[in-house]
From TrEMBL:
<dbReference type="GO" id="GO:0007165">
    <property type="term" value="P:signal transduction"/>
</dbReference>
<protein>
    <recommendedName>
        <fullName>Inositol-1-monophosphatase</fullName>
        <ecNumber>3.1.3.25</ecNumber>
    </recommendedName>
</protein>
<dbReference type="GO" id="GO:0004346">
    <property type="term" value="F:glucose-6-phosphatase activity"/>
</dbReference>
<dbReference type="InterPro" id="IPR020552">
    <property type="entry name" value="Inositol_monoPase_Li-sen"/>
</dbReference>
<dbReference type="GO" id="GO:0052832">
    <property type="term" value="F:inositol monophosphate 3-phosphatase activity"/>
</dbReference>
<dbReference type="GO" id="GO:0008877">
    <property type="term" value="F:glucose-1-phosphatase activity"/>
</dbReference>
<dbReference type="GO" id="GO:0006021">
    <property type="term" value="P:inositol biosynthetic process"/>
</dbReference>
<dbReference type="GO" id="GO:0005737">
    <property type="term" value="C:cytoplasm"/>
</dbReference>
<dbReference type="Pfam" id="PF00459">
    <property type="entry name" value="Inositol_P"/>
</dbReference>
<dbReference type="GO" id="GO:0008934">
    <property type="term" value="F:inositol monophosphate 1-phosphatase activity"/>
</dbReference>
<keyword id="KW-0378">Hydrolase</keyword>
<feature type="binding site">
    <location>
        <position position="220"/>
    </location>
    <ligand>
        <name>Mg(2+) 2</name>
    </ligand>
</feature>
<comment type="similarity">
    <text>Belongs to the inositol monophosphatase superfamily.</text>
</comment>
<dbReference type="GO" id="GO:0052833">
    <property type="term" value="F:inositol monophosphate 4-phosphatase activity"/>
</dbReference>
<dbReference type="GO" id="GO:0046872">
    <property type="term" value="F:metal ion binding"/>
</dbReference>
<dbReference type="InterPro" id="IPR000760">
    <property type="entry name" value="Inositol_monophosphatase-like"/>
</dbReference>
<feature type="binding site">
    <location>
        <position position="70"/>
    </location>
    <ligand>
        <name>Mg(2+) 1</name>
    </ligand>
</feature>
Length: 282
């Protein structure tokens, strides 16, 4: 069993490298941008092509495994996590960055068995940084061991977050109100590189103390989640409860003290779950 997952992880790393090099090449070219749920939810042919490449390769090598991918779900595939070994994939995390040539774009591949993450691979392809973690075996960037920051003072911390792609004014107001409260704790600063997966890897690397967001999807955070915990960090819901991969809410932090300091300030809201029945989605 153990060897089988190692095999799958090696395959994920090879796929992420291949996918990342296609993404990196595509940044140089003109691209046709299409819209998904709104005028700020973008997708390109590269997102779709890279996801298909990953699905085809996984299906060939691991025919019994299940697959949840951002673009497959957008095309109507179900988004349900079962006990079956499941690949949870974002082919291009940071599509808006990709479209604008903003240099943080990641390929994110998480893998869960019995609904628990076994490994995660995030390839920040413009920077050429390969982040990996396997359950119980630590987290690495380009082969170097990662450790979260040991900071316990929120006032000495940098916190990462994002604005996401929901422009409803009530949602935007809550995002700003949470950021305002956190900034005024005060903290050293707020950052965000435009990809959830990379933000989580920055928590794992110890250069930001935490990352939180409401509105992300399971494919944005699955790989990053195990990279954070294997680097010594913690995950929770924005209400302080356990992380639910399908709930579209996440806090990833270096430790519980910092996570709970943020949780206290977040004006939480509840987006439609990733695994909500299709008829409830627009
Ligand atoms: C998005 C990025 C972004 C986050 C959004 C995600 P995508 O993923 O991770 O940082 O703010 O919530 O949807 O659409 O670029 O794959
Ligand atoms: Ca994406």
């Amino acid at each position: 069993m153990t060897d089988l997952w190692q095999n799958a992880m090696d395959h994920a790393v090879a796929l992420a490298k291949k996918a990342g090099s296609l993404v990196r090449d595509a940044v140089q070219n003109d691209m046709k941008v299409m819209l998904k749920s709104s005028s700020v939810d973008l997708v390109t042919k590269t997102d779709q092509m890279v996801e298909q490449l990953i699905i085809d390769s996984v299906k060939e090598k691991f025919p019994t495994h299940s697959f949840i991918g951002e673009e497959s779900v957008a095309a109507g595939e179900p988004c349900v996590l079962t006990d079956n070994p499941t690949w949870i994939v974002d082919p291009v995390d940071g599509t808006t960055n990709f479209v604008h040539g903003y240099p943080f774009v990641a390929v994110s591949i998480g893998f869960a068995v019995n609904r628990k993450l076994e490994f995660g691979v995030v390839y920040s392809c413009i920077e050429d940084k390969m982040y990996t973690a396997r359950k119980g075996k630590g987290a690495f960037c380009n082969g170097l061991l990662l450790n979260v920051s040991d900071q316990k003072e929120i006032s000495q911390s940098i916190i990462a977050t994002e604005f996401g792609s929901n422009r409803d004014t009530e949602v935007v107001d809550k995002i700003f109100s949470s950021m305002r409260k956190i900034l005024c704790l005060p903290i050293h600063g707020i950052r965000g590189v435009g990809t959830a997966a990379t933000n989580m890897c920055l928590v794992a690397s110890g250069c930001v103390e935490a990352y939180y967001e409401i509105g992300i999807h399971c494919w944005d955070i699955a790989a990053g989640a195990i990279i954070v915990t294997e680097a010594g960090g913690v995950l929770m819901d924005v209400d302080g409860g356990p992380l639910d991969l399908m709930s579209r809410r996440v806090v990833a932090a270096n430790n519980k003290i910092i996570a709970e300091s943020i949780v206290k300030e977040i004006d939480a809201f509840t987006p439609l779950r990733d695994d909500a029945p299709p008829e409830t989605k627009d």
